[in-house]
Amino acid sequence: MSTIPALVGTADTARAPAGGRHGADEEHVRRPGRGGLLEAEERVAAGVGRALEAVFAAVAETRAETAALLARVTDAGRGAVSADLAALRPGLHLRLEREELVSGVGFVAAPGLLTDVPAWLEWWQSTAEGDVRPLLLDLDPRQSAYTDYTHWDWFALPRDTGLRAVAGPYVDYLCSDEYSLTLSAPVELAGRFAGVAAADVYLRHFEDAALPLLRELPGPAHLVNARGRVAASADPAHLAGSLTKGHDFAAVLREARATDVAGSGVRLVPCRGLPLVLVWRAATA
Amino acid sequence: MKQRHVESDARDTSGRGGAEGARRAVFAPVESRARVEAVVRRIGDAIELGLLADGEQLPGESELAGLLGVSTVTLREALMALRQRGLVTTRRGRGGGSFVSLPERPGQERLRARLRGWSSEELRDLGDHWAALSGTAAALAAERTGPDDLRPLLRSVEELATAPDAAARSRVYGRFHVELAAAAQSARLTREQVTLQTEVGALLCLVLATDEYREEVADRHRAVIRAVQDEAPDSARTLAERCVRESAARLIALRLTL
C-alpha cells in the first residue's frame, strides 16, 4: 500500500508557529531581498498548512461525534453495533459537502469494537456527480484478500502513537482507487483505542490548493512528506509521487526549522504542524 | 472495494437465443445492453464463485435494481439471462421470488468450464496485458519505493507461503500485484491491475493447487521485491514479467488439454 506516514504533533490542534522566521538561530539576512524570500516561503508553508488544517478540523469533528456516540451507547449498558454508527451520517454528509478538499470521510472501527460485526467502516464518499454514497466493502475474509485494514498507515499510525497523522500520498485501492492523502486521528472509548476518524483528500484536489501557493515562489518548488515522497509540485523535475532523495526531511520536521542545503540554494521549510516540507530553490545566487 | 475475484467474463451466453434474439440485442440501446450484461456478469460470477449461496433468495426486483443502480427493466432482462443459464430460478406467488440455483458441478469443474470459455489466444493476450502491467509497475516501484513501501508486499508473500487452499492463494497472488502497482504510485496501473485480477483470479485457482507451484510463485515474488528494494528497475520488470508469463503459460497449457 506504500503509504507514507508522518506524525503530527498533537492529537487535535496544530502547534504554535514553529517556522524559522521567528527562530533564534535564524540565519542573518545576507543580501537584499532575502528577508522577502523568507517571508514568501513562510507564507506558502502556512497556506498549505491552513488548507490541511481545515481537513483536520473535519477529522476532529468526526472524532468527537464518534467518541460521544460510543460513550452514550456504552453508558446505556450495551455494546455498540454497526447500526449505531448510522447516527454519524448527518455529520459526515455535512463535512463532505462543506469541505472542498474532502472526498471521503468517516469512522473506521477497531476490529472487535462492534458486537455484531468483526470489522466496520462507516465511510462516505462524494461522487463526481456531487452526490454522497456509502463505501460498501466486502469484509468477509473467505471472499476477499482486502479485509484487514489495520495494516494501512492511516489506521496503524493513530493507533500506535495516539496522535493524528497524515498518510500518503498513496494509491488508495481499498476505498477510492485514487491517489490520495488520508488524514486521521484516534478515537477512544474509556481510554482505549476504538478506531480512527479520517478524511481523504485526493491528490489532484490537493494540487489545486497547493499549486497557486507554490507558484508564488520565485524558484521551482515542491512539497514532500517525511520520507521525501512528493505530494504536490510546481517543478517539472520533481513530480507528485516521485521520491526526492538526499535530504533528511524527518529531521527538518523534528527540528521544525527552515534550513539551507549547503551550496545548492535549496531551502527546506517545514509546514508548521504538518508532516510536509516545502522544498524550493531560489534563482541562482 | 469491488468484488475482486469475480470474473467478468460472460461470453458463454453470447451467440445463444437465435437470430431474433441477436437482432434484438443488436438494436437494443447500447447503454442499457451493457448494463444488462454487467448485471448478468456480476450476479452470475458471484453465484459461480460461491459468493451467493445455493438456494439464497435474492432481494426483490425493485430493491435489487436500486442496489445495483439499474432500472427494473434492465434487471428483469438480466434475471432472464441468468435463468437461461440455470443460475437463478424464479418462483411466482406467495413466498416467491428469485433464488440462487447452484449448478450441480464441483468448483474445480466449474472453473475448468470457465477456462474453456477462453481461447488459448485470449489467454495469451491476457498474459501479455498482465505482464505489461506488472512489469511496468515493478520498474516504476523500483524507482519510487522507499523502505517502508515494501511492507505490504512482504506480508503478501508470507501469506502466500502459508495460504491453505487454491482460492486463498489466488487472492493473495492477485493482491501482491495490486500492491506492486500501488508501490509504483500509479492509480491507473492499480485500477487496471484490480480489473485484470477480477478476470484472472478465479482461473489462477486452477494452477495454484500444488504446493510446489505455490512455493515457486512465492520465490518469484520475493525476487521481485529484492529487485525493487535494490532500486533495479530493469531487473524488477523482467522478474515480474517472468512471474506472470509463467502463470499464464500454465493456464494456456491446461486450457489446451480441456
UniProtKB/TrEMBL annotation, chain A:
<protein>
    <recommendedName>
        <fullName>Cache domain-containing protein</fullName>
    </recommendedName>
</protein>
<feature type="region of interest" description="Disordered">
    <location>
        <begin position="1"/>
        <end position="35"/>
    </location>
</feature>
Automatic annotation (TrEMBL), chain B:
<dbReference type="GO" id="GO:0003677">
    <property type="term" value="F:DNA binding"/>
</dbReference>
<feature type="region of interest" description="Disordered">
    <location>
        <begin position="1"/>
        <end position="22"/>
    </location>
</feature>
<keyword id="KW-0804">Transcription</keyword>
<dbReference type="InterPro" id="IPR036390">
    <property type="entry name" value="WH_DNA-bd_sf"/>
</dbReference>
<feature type="compositionally biased region" description="Basic and acidic residues">
    <location>
        <begin position="1"/>
        <end position="14"/>
    </location>
</feature>
<dbReference type="InterPro" id="IPR036388">
    <property type="entry name" value="WH-like_DNA-bd_sf"/>
</dbReference>
<feature type="domain" description="HTH gntR-type">
    <location>
        <begin position="33"/>
        <end position="103"/>
    </location>
</feature>
<dbReference type="InterPro" id="IPR011711">
    <property type="entry name" value="GntR_C"/>
</dbReference>
<keyword id="KW-0805">Transcription regulation</keyword>
<dbReference type="InterPro" id="IPR000524">
    <property type="entry name" value="Tscrpt_reg_HTH_GntR"/>
</dbReference>
<dbReference type="GO" id="GO:0003700">
    <property type="term" value="F:DNA-binding transcription factor activity"/>
</dbReference>
<dbReference type="InterPro" id="IPR008920">
    <property type="entry name" value="TF_FadR/GntR_C"/>
</dbReference>
<keyword id="KW-0238">DNA-binding</keyword>
<protein>
    <submittedName>
        <fullName>GntR family transcriptional regulator</fullName>
    </submittedName>
</protein>
<dbReference type="Pfam" id="PF00392">
    <property type="entry name" value="GntR"/>
</dbReference>
<dbReference type="Pfam" id="PF07729">
    <property type="entry name" value="FCD"/>
</dbReference>
